[in-house]
């Protein structure tokens, strides 16, 4: 048994590692500049017109995210490409350098060209805005136009940059684009930092460090666990109620002899299973939390306005918040109830063909008693394993449902 567990665990490790790589790459290759996204989220789109638009602030965020490190333990590039391009903090300039390298090769000339531009920018040239635009451009027509503007404002700088750009075009060599090179980056890379941390500011996702909020900069783990607790509480109650009512319903469907009753119940179950969560939530609010029809339950939130849950016990909070939880619980339970009922019906129908059930009937037990005493304990085994499938699906559907009901769970993060 121990050997079996060890083998299963060893098989699980590479799968988990592969999933972590996929998740990391999905975040790493999202379009746009992550530094600008953080600045916009924290300070608004007008940050460029304030003192926040500084190289020092952008550089600190860039290093905080670990973007000044290579992406992975190794990298595969073309011979013409630069293997330390990640050190360029300006997103647009980095993209321009990469595109020019793909178009012309000759990385040494490209590096000299951009170094000269950055030198002129750093020395507060009068053509700073034009030079900044030039450092972020890779299309030939646009580059020539910007170079002419620089020449009209500063002849010597324009002539130097025109000569350097001409060297790039004249030295075009694309053969290196088809020659792969492998670079080993060691453990100082973005993936290792993301997964294991650095032992100081970052603990790594494997130790519960999910990063910081784009909007506030606060560590996500400071508030994610509390909201996750609200969501899991809601989902656990909903799934438990679904099991509690779905198992007797499924067994009842098996014993129903009337074709008409079976068809009506099957239609109702399929309808409940097929209805999407957002539509079920909207219908429940319309019929049971509407002042124009039936206002039986509150339509949103978890507690009354002015109520402070931190001042009361858990059971008091649960009692006060239960009316607010009923509609979200029903939204989750409807689909789970239909799925479990249908599966219970199919499993029970198979069990009724076994000899132990026929023997129980032959000994004088009614169909209801034989099902309850003998069949029920046999169908519970596959149904319990179903809980591990329904729970993740319910967690995945929390976003829309909690947004509709304004429930303070993980969907509001």
Q: Mean pLDDT, nearest integer?
A: 82
Unreliable spans are none
The portion of residues assigned to helices is: 55-70%
The N- to C-terminal Cα distance equals 42 Å
Classification by helices and strands: mainly alpha
For the sheet with most strands, the description reads: 2 strands, antiparallel
Rg from C-alpha positions? 32 Å
SSE order in H/E notation? HHHEHHHHHEHHHHHHHH
- What is the number of helices? 16
DSSP strand count: 2
Strand order of the largest sheet: 1-2
Instruction: Tell me, briefly, the overall form.
Output: elongated
Strand content: under 5%
Write a compact overview of the structure shown:
This protein is an all-alpha fold and 413 residues long. It is 65% helix and 2% strand. The protein has helices at residues 2-28, 34-43, 55-64, 91-104, 107-122, 128-135, 140-153, 155-170, 190-196, 221-255, 259-274, 277-288, 314-351, 355-362, 367-396, 398-405; strands at 74-78, 180-184.
Fold and architecture overview:
This protein is mainly alpha-helical. The protein has 16 helices and 2 strands. It has helices at residues 2-28, 34-43, 55-64, 91-104, 107-122, 128-135, 140-153, 155-170, 190-196, 221-255, 259-274, 277-288, 314-351, 355-362, 367-396, 398-405, and strands spanning 74-78, 180-184. Strands 1-2 form a two-stranded antiparallel sheet. It starts with a helix and ends in an 8-residue tail after the last helix.
Any chance you could write out the topology, listing elements then pairs?
Elements: H1 2-28, H2 34-43, H3 55-64, E1 74-78, H4 91-104, H5 107-122, H6 128-135, H7 140-153, H8 155-170, E2 180-184, H9 190-196, H10 221-255, H11 259-274, H12 277-288, H13 314-351, H14 355-362, H15 367-396, H16 398-405
Antiparallel strand pairs: 1-2
Helix pairs in contact: 4-5, 5-6, 5-8, 6-7, 7-8, 10-13, 10-15, 11-13, 12-13, 12-16, 13-15, 14-15
